[in-house]
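Format notes (please read before filing issues)

Several people have asked whether sequences and structure tokens are stored in separate files. They are not. Every record keeps both together, in the order shown below: the sequence lines, then the token lines. Line labels are part of the format and must not be stripped during preprocessing.
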Amino acid sequence: MTEIAFSCDKSGNPTGFTIQGHADRMLELGDPLCAAISGMTMLVCNTLTEVFGVKLAIDAKEAKGYFDARILLIPEAQIHAVSGVLKGFSLQVEDLQKQYPEHVKLTKSFSHPERKEDHNVNT
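Then the structure lines:
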């Protein structure tokens, strides 16, 4: 089971996330669910640091399936964008949890407005 927790400050701004465990799904295929979570994690961290200039403290223990990313510094002009990236990551994890509830557990999430299933931009 992979457990993912997001943390926020008192204002609701994201301060980081922690991932623990392995999804243990289809290990004979190299566990594509764990690979998906790892890929999303690296995309988020690289976007935060390389695109938005965020300073992160990262603690990773691959053998134990542990990854923790804490935001140390966000350029003031990027606060809204950084929040959006992490909230988007949280939404994607929620979707994985719905698809694979026995393998992915979101232990703490952001508050999201009601999600619309219809994403038609032409309305």
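For reference, the curators noted about this record: The domain at 2-108 is CATH 3.30.70.1490 (Alpha-Beta Plaits). Confidence is low (pLDDT under 50) at residues 112-123.
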